[in-house]
Design goal:
The complex is a heterodimer of chains A (223) and B (237).
Chain A (H helix, E strand, L loop, with lengths): L15 H17 E6 L10 E5 L5 H9 L4 E6 L6 H9 L2 E4 L6 H12 L3 E5 L15 H10 L3 E7 L1 H4 L16 E7 L11 H23 L2
Parallel strand pairs in A: 1-7, 2-5, 2-6, 3-4, 3-5
Antiparallel strand pairs in A: 6-7
Helix pairs in contact in A: 1-2, 5-7
Chain B lengths: L2 H4 L12 E3 L2 E3 L6 E4 L4 E5 L6 E4 H10 L26 E19 L2 E20 L2 E6 L20 E4 L3 E7 L2 E6 L3 E7 L4 H18 L2 E5 L5 E4 H6 L1
Antiparallel strand pairs in B: 1-2, 2-3, 3-4, 4-5, 6-7, 6-12, 7-8, 8-9, 10-11, 11-12, 13-14
Classes of the chains: A alpha/beta (223), B alpha+beta (237).
Chain lengths: 223, 237
């Protein structure tokens, strides 16, 4: 990740393809859904942050990458990168592979490196999509990374995506126009946990941090 | 993922399994039909009476009350009387699967730097997966049959394997397949031919919960690895 020119939206990377696809997808999603934004001011215009998301639908990462006020990198399951095309495309639109079936130190390193460079990194703290639209337990490893980084943590909820495309359902991608389904992308105020460099400190802070993030995610997911 | 992968038994009468295709499922015992309705609601059509819109949450709760993943005596089938709800019961189930094993990784690079790794899955062929008590086994088809789905020929010779549940390091579902991680981060991926991947994830998690509860521990995470803690700590919170 060499440094490029400073982008308009805060990232150090030019990421031309990412910006073009954001524009194309925003046209599609606006035609397909009635999208509302709440709390966008909570996303800093500059500097690093973690966006912690609830995961209810395949649409979540697409909508986030399209509409987040800053270009954002998110951790995506490694199986997404298995085909040659996706292995080429996904990194160009801000996806970072993470092996979900084991502890993946490389994805943690990359996430922290991006944070050091002042980027925004999105994580689905539950680790997988919900079956019933409810928040699932947050993964302990994710909370540890947030505490290690010590940057603002912004809980984000995408309300309405489960109703359009639940994990067990199918969506008509060609349906646009009338009867657009509502989706709200809601950002909470940043939570500051401070930096916890040593493991013991992270373990002490983890239970309380988990509770605070869960509470904030419940609030942003409220319909 | 098809609706009957989530509703792997009938939430109305408990019959196991539901038959279905994509957004529709039907219970062959009571005749109730389940269809993806508006949004995330499921339209439940009983054989007699009016259809109703029910949330997936409530149907999943009904399923849980009926014993969750269940345990079947026959291949790919469940039986109500053999519900695995009580903790003392012997878990048994088998199903046809395609077996994949992670053999190496693709390195994902971007602008010359290593961004991460994506596992390379080698498909080994079809066979039977069986959970019996504390033992999980895979028996390949005798004739080494080609994988029925999109993969024409199995890659390399497939050998059966068996492991005890205590050797399992992680269990998770990924795109309709169940991934089981064993010691040394060896990853086995099972794609189910005629059973629900979610049921098998639930079943393996239930089996692991029981295993660890016998030694006074409870499982707090199944992925990326199984993490346990003493039951006293959990109840003390």
């Amino acid at each position: 990740m060499k440094e490029g020119r400073t982008g308009k939206q805060g990232t150090e990377q030019p990421m031309v393809l990412y910006r073009v696809l954001r524009w194309v997808m925003s046209i599609y999603f606006r035609a397909r859904m009635k999208i509302r934004f709440e709390g966008e001011d909570n996303v800093p215009k500059k500097g690093p942050f973690f966006l912690v998301l609830s995961h209810q639908s395949d649409l979540d990462s697409l909508l986030l990458h399209t509409f987040c006020p800053r270009l954002i990198f998110t951790l995506a399951k490694s199986s997404v990168f298995r085909t040659r095309f996706m292995a080429w495309l996904a990194p160009r639109v801000g996806a970072v592979p993470t092996r979900r079936y084991q502890i993946d130190p490389q994805s943690v390193r990359v996430a922290l490196r991006l944070i050091e460079r002042g980027e925004g990194v999105g994580v689905f703290a539950e680790g997988e999509r919900s079956w019933d639209g409810k928040l699932q337990p947050l993964r302990g490893g994710t909370i540890r990374v947030l505490l290690k980084a010590g940057v603002p943590v912004i809980p984000c909820g995408l309300v309405g995506t489960y109703e359009i495309l639940p994990r067990w359902g199918h969506m008509n991608w060609f349906k646009v126009g009338l009867g657009r389904e509502p989706v709200t992308i809601r950002y909470a105020k940043p939570i500051h946990f401070g930096r916890h460099d040593d493991r013991a400190s992270r373990e002490r802070a983890r239970p309380e941090a988990t509770v605070r993030i869960e509470k904030a995610l419940h609030a942003v997911m409220a319909r | 993922m098809p609706i009957h992968d989530m509703l792997y038994r009938c939430p109305r009468c408990g019959h196991d399994p539901l038959e279905g295709h994509k957004t529709r499922a039907r219970c062959s015992s009571c005749g109730t039909r389940f269809e993806q309705g508006r949004g995330s609601l499921i339209t439940v059509r009983p054989p007699e009476g009016l259809a109703e819109q029910v949330s997936a949450t409530s149907l999943l709760a009904d399923l849980e009350k009926m014993g969750g993943p269940g345990a079947g005596k026959e291949r790919g089938k469940g039986s109500n009387e053999d519900s695995s709800g009580s903790s003392g019961e012997h878990l048994y189930r088998e199903a046809r699967v395609s077996l994949g094993i992670a053999e190496g990784y693709e390195v994902i690079r971007w602008r010359g730097e290593v961004l991460g790794f994506a596992e390379r899955i080698s498909w080994k062929g079809e066979g039977l997966i069986r959970l019996e008590g504390e033992l999980l086994t895979f028996t390949p088809d005798e004739n080494g049959a080609a994988v029925r789905s999109r993969r024409a020929e199995p890659e390399g010779r497939v050998e059966g394997f068996s492991c005890i549940l205590a050797d399992i390091r992680g269990v998770q579902i990924s795109s309709g397949a169940v991934q089981v991680t064993l010691e040394g981060d060896r990853l086995y991926q099972f794609e189910f031919v005629d059973d629900s991947a979610k049921r098998w994830e639930d079943l393996l998690c239930l089996a692991l919960r029981r295993l660890y509860s016998e030694s006074g521990r409870c499982v707090i995470e199944f992925k990326p690895r199984v993490v346990t803690e003493p039951i006293s700590m959990k109840s003390g919170r």
